[in-house]
Amino acid sequence: MIKISCCIPGGSLMPEGVAGVPEGPVGQIVSKCRYLLSVGYDCTECAGGMLAGLSDEEAEELVRENEKEPLRLAAVNSLFPWDWKLADPDADHAPYLARADKIFSVMEKLGASYAVFGSGGARSLIADKENSRETLYTFVKDLARLAKSHHLTLVIEPLRRAESNIFVTVPETGEIIRSLNDPDVRLLYDAFHMAEEGTDLSCVREYADLLDHCHIAESPKRSVPGSDDGKDLSYNRRFARELIRSGYDGAVSIECGFGDFRADAVRGLAYLREIFALCSEADVTPVRDCHEEPVYVPVKGGTVPPDVTSARCGERLFPASSYADGAVVILTAKAGETLHLTFGTEPVPGAPSVTLLPDEKKAQVRIGETLFSEYVFDPSIPKPFFGQVKDDAGHPFTRLDLAVKEHPHQRSVFIAVGDVNGVDCWNETPNHGFVRNESVTNVESASAYAAFTARNLWTDHGGKPLLRESARYTVYNQSETCRALDITVTFKADFGEVAFGPTKEAGPLGIRVRDELRADIGSGTLSNSWGGVGEGECWSRSAEWCDYCGEVPEAGFMGITVFDNEKNERFPTAWHIRAYGLFAANNLYFKGGLTIPAGESLTYRFRILFRKAPMTRDELSDRFVQYTVAPQAD
Hints:
The relative contact order is 0.07. Helix 1 (about 25-40) runs parallel beside helix 3 and helix 4 runs parallel beside helix 6. The chain folds into three domains: about 5-275, TIM Barrel; about 280-345; about 400-630, Beta-galactosidase, Chain A, domain 5, CATH 2.70.98. It has about 625 residues and is of the alpha+beta class.
């Protein structure tokens, strides 16, 4: 269970430029810590300068007070004055370690656990010193060893760019810690700094294996959590949700500026108790019939526990998993029926899973024990693809033939655009571009859904970067009657402006159906949401959804339906759907190209249904409405 803590005032809380940490007498530390504990905090925190400034006699007095009534000091922050130069290769580092040793010695006697390495100005790299970075990394390792000798753990705090030029964001700091490969160097999350830097909260779970301590305050004024002066009052709530879902069970410490310390501390505690509360019940009333429909059910307060596997309503048991401000429930219910759901940990069959196979360059996706598909990111192939997609008997919905000569670049399900700043990242003709996988992260396997995120770099033929792609793939605990694959793909203009040309060779979502489903040589029928049938009525037409289905020898009925999303640009999309088996959503050719300004991004959302049961246009439209109109958590 997460423990709630608070930093007592009297130390340096930044901003950068405050030239020292006021020395605090023993009475100040004791009275403030004991006040926090008396109103219900689990533990406390103080600044390193408050301990470094103590005389030997005062330190002994503080230890005696702690022995009489523990102060429950979990952590100490602000270890070094801002104007020290820890990254200076020409500096004498002995005084730096001597100061740390004094602080750590007192911390050890007080039973503290974590030494927080914030100290932004002190740790900043020195631009004109060639070995500044290496010097800082060496110092961090020395500091971690010193902390360990006092039975403490060193945690690095990512700060704002205004305070430091290194260890700024959680992803940057997390990657540096991984590269240091030192088990004694750990990570801290500070929600205030994360909000200030606009940090995507998906990183909370991505680096949770490194996490040992947290700070929290409202941005931009660094006010007490729950204050109404925040620029995004939902940020800390979402931070709390992600922290709970990551399985974190350490301390979250308020580190803020106080107006009235006692009153603010009480308000902050009440707010943290609210956002870190667990919720086990919710009501849902579907407005349409649901049959194994993935429904996002928000809860009124708190967070659904991360170990939830089911939602019970009387004798009915549905797959359920904690998600966003609620849960994803695979719901079967009648329209207008109110269900009171109780979340629990009862096992349910068919849980989907994602297994990352890095040596094989793929992520394997199963629903229950059945192989559903694989995301393949083999660098010998110009771009990744998701496929083949199969039913329970192993019959494929999509085509995958690495030796085929006809449109060889159309592999199962793929993300591609034929004109990216003039570079063809769709076809694989001379001088084509490449889509290279950089990582597969945020892998989740839960009772109701499984998901992963693929991060890819798009380049020209010579390797010059064009853009970055981040694509989230999600599957659900559904039977093969109808299975949904959700794809959310974001293009990021990290290397300058990105121009998508008005090209016919584009999606960004592309699907190639198996040959037996083709409309020209197989049994396939094309249709769309407004009643169009066949290539002549579907190709180039805008529609909320499009469908490709037919009877396949030995496999029976097979259908693929793609839903556009009202949040996508120029919704509803135009469809590049052909009798020869290509099935793509393409606004670029039919509605004109577009530009992503440098530093900005563009996101598309799609749901693909893989069906083993015929459905009428009304049935598909019902599912479309539930997908795009019902509450969602992007």
